[in-house]
């Protein structure tokens, strides 16, 4: 049996135009599972710093993730799955044109489509179903034997976790990584870029570009894509200068 070609996609900032966890966070506030004061007092200041380009986007997302872990503790799995379905039904088409078209192209080529995302696995599952991925992996929030969330979390937003996930899917689907593709936007996606033959930085952070340019192999093989309004710009990583 010949090796298959895989296409590994991050979701937040790569497929979806923002962070999915922000959308589920808003739903939890709406349903009064998270107190609105926590948004205004803890999350909103981080967002404002990012919005003014005085702070880091990851700090904003991580603050929401911390509160999310606390908020779902004691909830039943079905409650979070219900909210996740609503989020994706309402927001799941808010994606980048470049990435959406690449998903279609990979499908037409018969490639294995996999999403590896730091968002809660309940959200990742719904996005995978909506956009036709063959498999998925996301952050897993622990549950007890009654499917009640315990407050424990197994992350999928860091580089080490994503590296382990790619090796898992490589074995599961007999994937030739040298011929495969990976799409991501933050430093957590860098390990995916190291493993595949065709890495693509989609609207990347400065930290990711520095990592790509600081590694001879990824610098040589990576492409950088920036989508702004209705224009898609494509660059070799050598053409990007970071101050």
- Integer average pLDDT: 90
Strand order of the largest sheet: 4-3-2-1-5-6-7-8
Q: What fraction, in percent, of the residue positions are helical?
A: 40-55%
Structural category is alpha/beta
How would a textbook summarize the main sheet? Answer: 8 strands, mixed
* Overall strand count: 8
Report the order of strands and helices.
Answer: EHHHHHEHEEHEHEHHEE
State the separation between the terminal residues, measured CA to CA: 48 Å
- Cα radius of gyration in angstroms: 18 Å
Overall 3D geometry? globular
Q: Count the helices. How many? A: 10
Can you tell me the residue ranges where pLDDT is under 50 for at least 5 consecutive residues? none
Characterise this structure:
A hairpin with a 5-residue loop joins strand 3 and strand 4 (149-154). An eight-stranded mixed sheet has the order 4-3-2-1-5-6-7-8, with helices on both faces. The model has no long low-confidence stretch (mean pLDDT 90). With 243 residues, the chain is α/β, with parallel strands linked by helices. It has helices at residues 20-30, 36-51, 57-72, 77-91, 97-108, 121-131, 159-173, 190-195, 206-213, 216-221; strands at 6-9, 112-120, 135-143, 149-154, 181-184, 198-202, 223-228, 231-236.
